[in-house]
Amino acid sequence: MKASELAKILGGTLEGDDVELAACGGLEEARKGDLSFCKDPKHVRLVETTQASAVLLPPDWTLGAPCAIIRVADPNHACMAAAKLFAPPEPERLPGVHATAIVDPSVKLGAGVHVGAYTVIEKGAEIGDGAVIEAQVFIGEGCKVGAGTHIYPQVTLREGTIVGKGCIFHCGVRLGGDGYGFNNGRREDGSVYIEKIPQLGIVEIGDGVEIGSNTTIDRARIGRTYIGPMTKIDNLVQVGHNVKVKGYSGLIAQSGIAGSTEIGYGCLIWAQAGISGHIKIADGVQVGPQAGVPQSLDGSVKYVLGAPAESMKEFGARTLLPKMVAKLKAEVKELKAKVG
Amino acid sequence: MKASELAKILGGTLEGDDVELAACGGLEEARKGDLSFCKDPKHVRLVETTQASAVLLPPDWTLGAPCAIIRVADPNHACMAAAKLFAPPEPERLPGVHATAIVDPSVKLGAGVHVGAYTVIEKGAEIGDGAVIEAQVFIGEGCKVGAGTHIYPQVTLREGTIVGKGCIFHCGVRLGGDGYGFNNGRREDGSVYIEKIPQLGIVEIGDGVEIGSNTTIDRARIGRTYIGPMTKIDNLVQVGHNVKVKGYSGLIAQSGIAGSTEIGYGCLIWAQAGISGHIKIADGVQVGPQAGVPQSLDGSVKYVLGAPAESMKEFGARTLLPKMVAKLKAEVKELKAKVG
Amino acid sequence: MKASELAKILGGTLEGDDVELAACGGLEEARKGDLSFCKDPKHVRLVETTQASAVLLPPDWTLGAPCAIIRVADPNHACMAAAKLFAPPEPERLPGVHATAIVDPSVKLGAGVHVGAYTVIEKGAEIGDGAVIEAQVFIGEGCKVGAGTHIYPQVTLREGTIVGKGCIFHCGVRLGGDGYGFNNGRREDGSVYIEKIPQLGIVEIGDGVEIGSNTTIDRARIGRTYIGPMTKIDNLVQVGHNVKVKGYSGLIAQSGIAGSTEIGYGCLIWAQAGISGHIKIADGVQVGPQAGVPQSLDGSVKYVLGAPAESMKEFGARTLLPKMVAKLKAEVKELKAKVG
């Protein structure tokens, strides 16, 4: 898109060359063909060295730029608007079942459902109105998918999985795999046995849940593994069998929740954190990045860090231990000299 | 299922309304339509507040419940039996090759093999008797899959992978991807090069191995990456090239084993633990959650924790350091006051 | 292959039985049918106990072996050559589009492109000369894949993803999933809201990038998530939205880079390390296994370890704290006794 055309759409004025623009980018990352923006005088220096082809600036700045300038009242807002124009068009997923999709005759498809190429939906499944099931998805027997839910390519839902309305599942999400459960020991003759414990339950996902790429959520041993409404799960997260996430929580990338643990409302589990099995995290608690939580958290501490997890104050003190010990060592040395 | 019908099947007696039951759930998690159970007087309080529609109780308890009661001799056992009745039916995977599966004419299929929709099996592969290869699976050239092995949808086996009998691979398992191996340095002219080292080996999986969703096991640089019999691997685990897991071990979710490391018999690697490359973990050693193991473990310590991993006693002492240092600080202060 | 035949190919001489050989393996791992090698007198003991059927040894060693011996000038090099002979044949991916692939008529396919079974390529995509797109791949609208790039089965590229030349993507790679971004707070009536922030950008991958199995790279909020040339990414790695990896770097298995962070040239992020969002890692810095990096690293320290990450010296000192504290404790006790 020409800078002049964009300036018109954004209600701004162009100064400089009428360059071709194709994408947005931060001042430092931007390159030829990019539109960038600056609204904060602190970052003026970055404007001087940007590789962007054009930059959005407030009308009153006297500052120049090494590229075209589009002056607008709110550069931040204008950049978001431009980003929408530059964004790859969201692919149309029109109602209808692709000729190559294999949908069992017993499946109940709601109104306006899209089913993509090479998707398989097995018997007894129900897909709600307006749901989008993209290409190469697998939906097992008796699964229920709520209205308006969007399932991206190559997701698998094992039999019996229940999904709420308005959910978004990204590529490679795995719901309903067997939980990790084995009995083992020694037989009378001394030989070792490892026996699979049947995983007879299901996964149930509430309304408005988003699940990131390649995240895995296991079916319950009995009953259900439950992800409550509006929970937002990032990529590569592991949720064990019989976990219960009450709702309105966030699980950030590569975090893991072991079996039968309960996560309260409004919790935030940061990246790479690990929560042990069979414990409870109280409503509103945040577990910091890479933290390891071995025991229940009752909410008296709102943010924990470290492994085993402790309060930020405790974690901070632990971080400073080497300095404290070095100081003590010097003091003890001095004392010893004095005492003789 | 009606509570009365279930009571009959379980050999128990119903007290209260003949409610409709559809699932099992713990006393706390249960909701309308759920059957729960209590066998331990300690949890009586939970019975009083359960949302279950019915609860299994021992015949001799005088205790009431806010819902229907089914009295049975062994509530725990009865609940497992009920769970089997409520469980989503295990999908039938009848012998036969789906019309859309692409199986190379050279592939040897054993008796009673099931091959699902849109699965691809390339030339020279061999599938043992009674194996179940579900939909959308990829099995590369020359792979061998043992009798009775069950491969869930969207698993990929790269060329040459060998799989034993009675294995279970959950959705998204990746076997035989190239190991991570590069040579790099500077050429005579000063330019940097990064060269891929050919990964010429294979992955070999023993009998009775279960592998969780989205776990990845790389092919060997030369020779084989080997997972010994009865090893149970959880979700999102990473196993590097040329790793050897002798057998009867467990690798819990999100743990990682770097290249060329050997894991002995009967080891347990807990969630999110990391084991360095080119080391050996002795038979029967357990590596705790999030532990980092930089060096071989000879089995003199049976359970290690922390990073770098140490004994539970050492890890416990480390955890207590802040308190010890604070105490020392106070003592030194006191001494200084005395000494002057 | 017969040992005699192999000896001929490798320019060596066979001593002992003309055994059948089918694979390579280290002296300890090798079993019947394997060829092993030894070039270092240090490992002589391992030769004595190897289960290999044949072993490559230098011509001048007087040492015997419990198996056949093939004497060659350079056992290491000869073993690599043998490994190539034993390796499963690399599957032929001939130019052409499989009859079951669904390639939109608007897609531009370069010369000699291979497209495998059940692969879906949506409208407006461009695939460069000689690219290999294997079976069951999904390539979204408007994606561009460079010449010679090899995409293994069951990879997904969401709309707008741009991929350079000569890349290799292993099974289950997910590019272009929505970044993790939500606004949340309370409405005037006190109710909680969690709103998805549109993820309008793309993923762009430079030339010569290799990405391991089940790794996930999110599309930018605006602009691009960028992986620079020759970067080598291992399995199960997470790269957040708007991350910029300049190039020639390595991201080892299960590491994670949070949103908007910049990784310099020639960095190495070891396994299970985590890098916070919105920071910069200077060129050439290495982040050790399981390290957690909360702040920018300016390159003054070349290798960091621990969480929060510190220099190896600092990390080493921290590791020794329990010993130091125990010693101090003893000294303080002694002082107290003296002082009274």
Write the layout of secondary structure elements.
3 copies of one chain form a homotrimer.
Chain A: H1 3-10, E1 13-15, E2 23-24, E3 34-37, H2 44-49, E4 54-57, E5 68-71, H3 75-86, E6 96-97, E7 102-103, E8 108-109, E9 114-115, E10 120-121, E11 126-127, E12 132-133, E13 138-139, E14 144-145, E15 150-151, E16 156-157, E17 162-163, E18 168-169, E19 174-177, E20 182-186, E21 192-196, E22 202-205, E23 210-211, E24 216-218, E25 224-227, E26 232-233, E27 238-239, E28 244-247, E29 250-251, E30 256-257, E31 262-265, E32 268-269, E33 274-275, E34 280-281, E35 286-287, E36 292-293, E37 303-305, E38 310-311, H4 312-319, H5 321-339
Parallel strand pairs in A: 2-3, 3-4, 4-5, 6-9, 7-10, 8-11, 9-12, 10-13, 11-14, 12-15, 13-16, 14-17, 15-18, 16-19, 17-22, 18-23, 19-24, 22-25, 23-26, 24-27, 25-28, 26-29, 27-30, 28-31, 29-32, 30-33, 31-34, 32-35, 33-36, 35-37
Antiparallel strand pairs in A: 1-5, 20-21, 37-38
Keywords:
homotrimer; 340 residues; alpha/beta; Udp-n-acetylmuramoylalanyl-d-glutamate--2,6- Diaminopimelate Ligase, Chain: A, domain 1; UDP N-Acetylglucosamine Acyltransferase, domain 1; 2 domains; 12-stranded mixed sheet; 10-stranded parallel sheet; 5 helices; flat
